[in-house]
């Protein structure tokens, strides 16, 4: 496991690289964040020029916000919980449409120290990446992670992974 300084450096490097790649393509990115509380958006906007590729984000900590702003299904929230593949996919799709972006990342997880269960222990995080180009259908990739460490480390690892997923997707599309 990397140190806190290494994690912070990784986040900064990925945010810088993501900004450069988005700028080249004239793409916009947005986030829908629960367990990270806006930390992904903060990493993106720490990069000079971010207003060229970032218009806004939704911090949807409460399920009410997930439902009302991101169009997440009440039934899925009640039956599956906020930390589930279905919910994070809906968060990504909802914020993508709301912000009229090319890429959206959504995260929902259990950062701890409390709130974990046998099925979803502390450190469980779902990340969904949605992508759309013009009239093409939205493509959504969702992945489950099990991060280790305290609350700050779980959040930091989530931010680093989310930035990495976005960077990987952007680099797959030629300029």
TrEMBL record:
NCBIfam families reported for this sequence: PncC_domain
What keyword terms does UniProt attach to this protein? Hydrolase
- Claim: Hydrolase is one of the keywords in the record: yes
According to the lineage, what is the superkingdom? Bacteria
Annotated membrane-spanning segments are none
Which InterPro entries does this entry report, sorted A to Z? CinA-like_C, CinA_C
- Write down the Gene3D superfamilies for this protein, in alphabetical order: CinA-like
> What's the name of the protein?
Nicotinamide-nucleotide amidohydrolase PncC
